[in-house]
Write a structure and sequence with these properties.
- By secondary structure, this protein is an alpha+beta fold.
- The longest helix is centred in the C-terminal third of the chain and has 10 residues.
- The mean pLDDT is 98.
- It has a three-stranded antiparallel beta sheet, with helices on one face.
- The protein is globular and about 30 Å long.
- The chain binds FE3-S4 cluster.
- FE3-S4 cluster binds next to helix 1.
């Protein structure tokens, strides 16, 4: 699975990082750094949680 983060939609809420800082990296202002993250099967629940947590719906799973 991949998580895609639309960096144009990201508004720096940093909730993805709060859900799992190992998967979702942010800059000093709280904005997502990576537009695509590989998700291991063991981390899929966290990825779903992070996608649901983003108020901008910037994270989609593929
Ligand atoms: Fe950005 Fe959403 Fe994460 S706004 S920092 S992708 S929670």
């Amino acid at each position: 699975m991949k998580a895609r983060i639309d960096l144009n939609l990201c508004s720096g809420h940093a909730r993805c990082y709060q859900v799992d800082p190992d998967l979702f990296d942010i800059d000093d202002s709280g904005y997502a750094l990576n537009s695509e993250v590989d998700i291991d099967s063991a981390d899929e629940d966290k990825a779903h949680e992070a996608a649901a947590s983003c108020p901008e719906r910037a994270i989609t799973l593929h």
